[in-house]
Amino acid sequence: MQTINYNEMVGLNLSTRQKTTSALQESIARLSSGLRINGAKDDVAGQAIVNRMRANVNSDTVISRGLDDAMSMAQTAESSLSTVGELLIRAKSLAIQSGNSTLSVSDRESLHAEYQEILDNIQYISENTEIFGRYPLATDAPDLPPELIGNVPPLDTKFPVAGTNYTFSSGIVSLAYIPAGAKDITLTIDSLGLDDDIQLFTRDGKHLAGTPITGTDPDYTWKSRGITDAAKATSRVLTEANGFEAGATYDDSLLIEGGASWVLDGSATLNYDGMTIRYSGDGDRYEPGNAYNDGSNGSNRLERIKIDNVTEDLVVMIVGSGSFTSNLNWGTLPAPKITPAEPPKQSFPWEVVTSANFDEEVGAVTMPTTPADLKSLGLLNTDLRSMATAGDAMGTLDSALEKVSRYRSQYGAFINRFESSKSVLAQQNVATQAAKSRIEDADYALETSKMVKAQILQQGQDAVLKVANQSAENILSLLRS
Fold this sequence. Notes:
Layout: H1 8-33, H2 44-98, H3 105-128, H4 155-158, E1 166-169, E2 174-178, E3 183-190, E4 197-202, E5 207-209, H5 220-224, H6 230-237, E6 268-272, E7 275-279, E8 302-309, E9 314-319, E10 323-329, E11 350-355, E12 363-367, H7 374-377, H8 387-440, H9 444-480
């Protein structure tokens, strides 16, 4: 039976047409993008696999660039180390030449001058070999400058090795300060026959131990420097440059200057601010009739201060007008440092990623530091001024050259390893790209065939739709007639 309100043939045609249009759009999308999977609806499992593969391909590309950077760094450092090695070989030749007893003093001075230039060049190379903002040959343990109080350094800078004698000049300039936190401090001086005396102060001007400035028997050392009263001590000794606080005033009310007899490990004791301070006394003031309080020591040339626990910064001054030797022993000795506004150049380990596949742990290799500065190579304080020091320098230079050669071998091994890793990554990248393509890429022949089929069906459906629409029009025409 023919109906007017609903054309069954048209309905069937439109339903089939939607499927044909969808198939045609799908084929056009795949042909346009070149991909079989353009969304999750195309292949749910395939899309998940392809995403993992794409993540691995992108990771391998980035890792490969990182390996290139690491090889560039290694090649740069190795090239500079090659130059350092040549300089060390030349320095060794100079040391051998200086060890020849036929050379005069002036000859050795000439050799030492060239040797020093070589060392300066090595230091320059270590501090200025730079790549990617990194300094692979710089020291890995830079020496930070000491924290000064005025112009006064902490005690450790004056006495780097415990128990070792060092020589200094005496005066009314502070030798060093003892930082708070130091424990079991023993400072000993030998005045070498002249009257140089230990003086210990707080930063606000309290004179804790030493020789008197005022009183009935002021010490010769102070008078010889023009310090004869508290006012002059305040203005000339207690200066900010000497490590004292602004506004410090001289106060000797706590001063211990020695006991009834000279005792090196303490003839007088002071307990102050949680500290126990022992002072030997000035040896010349114990000579018979005080005959040696005149700028020269008798038999008691040594002086010593011992402090069990330093609770605040203390200023040490050796007053006199000559030179003296001194040594220091300690249980604990803090070394206050400051970080300069421009941090020193420093080398750090280089972390290089070698693998980062999806859902796996990141693989990495660490390139250790290779400091080639003079301190790290052990070349500080070497010279060729005598046969003995030239002989010492030969052994030191051999050790330095061995270390540089080891660094170069290390970099060579890393370069070979990274090149091998890059080759593996390249092969892995090709295989992964091929596998991804087999899953993801469109088959152009198949998709073209599907598109042509869908276009033919669509054209036929258009023709059928016209015919189906004409049947209703024919019925209406009959009814009108």
